[in-house]
What does this fold into?
Amino acid sequence: MKQLAYDKMVVAMLTDDTDYDGKFYVCVKTTGIYCIPSCKAKTPMLKNVVFLPSKKKAIAAGFRGCKRCRSEFYPDVHPKWWAKALEVMKKDLTRKISEKELAGISNVDISTIRRYFKTYMETTPMAFHRKLRLEYARILIEQGNDYLSTAYECGFESASGFRDAFIKQYGYTPGKLNGNRKDRL
Ligand SMILES: [Zn+2]
It folds into this structure.
């Protein structure tokens, strides 16, 4: 295997670049843990890090797998239902998906789904989906849709609920986005 350049590995680690997962492992001398480059755990100080090209080498050097990125299971890090649940949520942005429905689609109980979201996304499934719908709404408004119809289009039940969620996520009102449109200037 061709050895990657040191600074490329540093950048991959700092940017949590999933493209490098499996291509090298970040081993932290102070904790004795090895991670995949995209691990969301706190980034260690560079002087405490060694990059090793394989899991085998990391284990041979005495490092243990990380609970956060489940590096020892890489590339089978997540069960199949996880990718499916994320895919459904990313595609279905025009309505609110309930936890019950999500559990049905994934075929696992909702407490497992919640735990996964907490560990890997640091959020709840519903908050994650709301964030995606808000992002979709923001794009629609930027494209010229009025914000009231956008709210309903993106599965929000009321304009005020949409407005509050939008402000919370972006720090400004959806109306401001409308007002900032270039075609209005
Ligand atoms: Zn990790």
Observations:
- The longest helix spans residues 125-142.
- The radius of gyration is 21 Å.
- The chain is about 50% helix and 5% strand.
